[in-house]
Amino acid sequence: MTTGRRTLFAAVCAVAVASLYAAQPVLAQIGTDLGVPDAHLGRIVAAGQLGYLAGLAVLVPLGDMIDRRKLISGHLLLTGVAAVLAATAARAWVLLVGLAVAGLFATVVQTTVAYAAALSTPEERGRNLGVVTSGVVVGILGARVAAGALATAWSWRSVYVVLAVLLVTLACLVLRTLPPDPRTDHAPYRQVLTSLGGLFRERLFVSRGLIAFFLFASFSTLWSGLALPLAAAPWHLDTAQIGLFGLAGLAGALGAARAGRWADAGFASAVTGGALALLATSWLAIGQTSWSLWPVVIGVVVLDFAVQAVHVSNQHLLTMTHPHHTSSAIGGYMIFYALGSALGATTTTTVFADAGWTGSSVLGAAFAACALTVWAANAHQGPGCGGPPRMEEDAGRRGFECVQKCGSRYRRRSG
């Protein structure tokens, strides 16, 4: 895994996930242009998220059957087509269809992460995942800043034109620069879906999925609701100023890229517990919007650092435990992510209306505490640092025993 390939993988993740979040800072412009009432603007964001959720269950498992290089390139092209449809939409329903299709194929992010894990040696897998998944955070937070700037300079349509150009360019680069998928055996789709369903009966997978559910509920509580207190008294910040808080979050998330190296050293579970404790603590600072913004900035940095560290550690454990089903493992895991994000986005605005930002901060801290509780209840699963338990595949198939020891990497042997 060269530096160039890591960078390309991260760029694919950043641009693909940006197609999901680019609409959020320009909803007002879209509503004015297409005549969408304020009460219905939420449907624009929901369309992409629903498409994304469907893609996690239906498209991501294809990565365990098809050449992932071609699959990534194809999905990027189709996401680009959907972005063009959104950019040229003259009616609201056409925009909704375009965003839903873009969300469906934006799940190329998970195929990309799984492919990066498959191309990595065990010694560098955590490091590579840390770099690649940092692209996801760059896309989520950077999309808010870039979309606002493009919409201010031209219009909201220019956001999707730029995305389409970037997506098509990346699709060509993937075919030209990435190696062909080294796998020679490809499971049938029915078997892949059965394997995906079987993951939900494994304690390690479910526990890491629940941690992700509460983790991203806390993350979404912040980023779906922070604009509300910042735009209100006493600050009255405009959209561009609020967008700058995304840079603080970006700094924190990129700072957690080293979490992958810690996971490679055998400390994935310890990193998870420590980062979740930081996540809960960060809400003490984030809740101080009534008297100072500096604690909020510090809290945002800490929160995004913690979220990225846990996310990398989770994916490292799952890809090491399921080396031959990385796409299914990542896709299933991200279903928890999508549901948690939706929960946080939905509840934070409701709580803010009743209890202000203090109430939303308590909510975010509660989600973090739930994630920490799940981790604590499952930290004894494996030997040493609390790694995954010994796991054997279904009867009649080759088994793998993944054992984690403090300060060492996983070792694999025939079942």
Describe this structure in words.
The protein has 17 helices and no strands. With 415 residues, the chain is mostly helical. Helix 1 runs antiparallel to helix 6 (108-119) and helix 4 packs antiparallel against helix 8 (156-177). The model is unreliable at 382-415 (pLDDT under 50).
Keyword list:
single chain; 415 residues; mainly alpha; 17 helices; globular; disordered C terminus
Q: How do the strands and helices of this protein lay out in sequence?
A:
Layout: H1 3-21, H2 27-34, H3 42-58, H4 68-87, H5 92-105, H6 108-119, H7 125-153, H8 156-177, H9 189-199, H10 203-225, H11 227-231, H12 239-243, H13 245-255, H14 259-264, H15 268-286, H16 294-321, H17 326-378
Helix pairs in contact: 1-5, 1-6, 1-7, 1-8, 3-5, 3-17, 4-5, 4-6, 4-8, 6-7, 6-17, 7-8, 7-13, 7-16, 9-17, 10-16, 10-17, 13-16, 15-16, 15-17, 16-17
Helix content: over 70%
Distance N terminus to C terminus? 29 Å
Order of helices and strands: HHHHHHHHHHHHHHHHH
Choose one word for the global shape.
globular
Our Rg estimate from Cα atoms comes to: 21 Å
The description of the largest β-sheet is: none
Number of strands: 0
Beta-strand percent range: under 5%
Q: Helix- and strand-based class?
A: mainly alpha
Q: Which blocks of ≥5 consecutive residues have pLDDT under 50?
A: 382-415
Number of helices: 17
Q: Roughly what is the average pLDDT, rounded to an integer? A: 81
Compact summary:
The chain is mainly alpha-helical and 415 residues long. Helix content is 73%, strand content 0%. The chain is built from 17 helices and no strands.
